[in-house]
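[RESIDUES AND BACKBONE]
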Amino acid sequence: MRTDEFVNLLAAGESPVPRGVAARRFSVAIAVALVGGAVLMLALYGIRPDIGLVAWTPIFWAKVAFPMSLAVGAAIAVGRLARPAARVGMGLPLMSAPVLVVWLAAAAVVATAVPEARLGLLLGQTWRSCPFNILLLSTPGFVAMIWAMRGLAPTRPRRAGAAAGLLASAIGTLVYCLHCPEMSPAFWGLWYVLGLSLPTLIGALLGPRLLRW
């Protein structure tokens, strides 16, 4: 049998993939990440009692904007990496910029603080638990993102897994902001970034196993 005949035989009966499949799958995954993370946060930690007051402060919305902007960049990267041989594209600068901004803000805060206050700005009150809290709240989203990816066609599973982990952790961090008492960019730049990195690293490690065809 000639090659072209073999290809035609393999393709016989196949229909085009319906439009919007990726958008629908990732919409479900993002909803699961938000709802699942919120349920875990409410059950395990609760909303910070002064949320009604801090919600009126610019620094609170700066904290919320950090994971939200990361989620936008990660969502673009995930959507592209779910396609065969696609590159991250604009997702990469959109993921990098929020981290760079927070690190610059952290450096300014630490540099202008009195020396005896600098360690407190970096450690806050919750440095021991913060990264692991973010990891836990990211779990529903991570499972949902891997499910969404597996129904598509990623050909770079390590990058796709890392992007899925970052998107899940960005949503988990967004939910965590409703509980977390830390209000210093120096804290976010260290411990939030570490918490965001854990699911990203797990996704990169498990991607070749979980996302292979």
Confidence is low (pLDDT under 50) at residues 9-17. The first helix runs from residue 3 to 11.
